[in-house]
Amino acid sequence: MNRRGLISDERLGELCDTVRILVEKRDYEQCESVIFLAMSKYPHAPEPHNLIGIVLERKLEHVAAMKHFRAAWALDPTYIPARHNLNLFGSFFPVGKCAFDESDCTEDG
């Protein structure tokens, strides 16, 4: 991987941490601002779409959230947090926690 890729990965990891903290504070407006900026900087990255999906779920905007989880999955089919969230929120009775990043995913996904 080139140096630019490593910098992007690091910044996207920081984005996940920042959004996690803001969601815990229920500061959804700031979350959206940070995520939309990341979407413009990294248009082909799945992380911002996965994160905005989480925020939208918290705001009870389920249909929009699922669209973003699917967008994240389409951008990178190997991005496990998107699959995890699709499975979690796609069920009638979600059980478990959402995945902000890979550290939130269990082995069985």
Question: Which labels suit this protein?
Answer:
single chain, 109 residues, mainly alpha, Serine Threonine Protein Phosphatase 5, Tetratricopeptide repeat, 5 helices, 67% helix, 0% strand
Fold blueprint:
Layout: H1 3-24, H2 28-41, H3 46-58, H4 62-75, H5 80-89
Helix pairs in contact: 1-2, 1-3, 2-3, 3-4, 3-5, 4-5
Gist?
By secondary structure, the protein is mainly alpha-helical. It is 67% helix and 0% strand.
Can you offer a commentary on this structure?
- The chain is mostly helical.
- It has one domain (3-101): Serine Threonine Protein Phosphatase 5, Tetratricopeptide repeat (Alpha Horseshoe), CATH 1.25.40.10.
- It contains five helices and no strands.
- The chain has helices at residues 3-24, 28-41, 46-58, 62-75, 80-89.
- α2 (28-41) packs antiparallel against α3 (46-58).
- It is globular and about 35 Å long.
- It starts with a helix and ends in a 20-residue tail after the last helix.
- The mean pLDDT is 89.
Total number of strands: 0
User: What string, H for helix and E for strand, traces the elements in order?
Assistant: HHHHH
Radius of gyration: 13 Å
Shape, per Cα inertia axes: globular
* Low-confidence region ranges: none
Provide mean pLDDT, rounded: 89
Number of domains: 1
Just give the CATH class: Mainly Alpha
Name of the CATH superfamily: Tetratricopeptide repeat domain
Overall SS class: mainly alpha
Reported for the largest beta sheet, the result is: none
Report the CATH topology name.
Serine Threonine Protein Phosphatase 5, Tetratricopeptide repeat
Count of discrete alpha- or pi-helical segments spanning 4 or more residues: 5
Share of β-strand residues: under 5%
Helix content: 55-70%
Q: What would you say the CATH architecture is?
A: Alpha Horseshoe
**Terminal-residue CA separation:** 26 Å
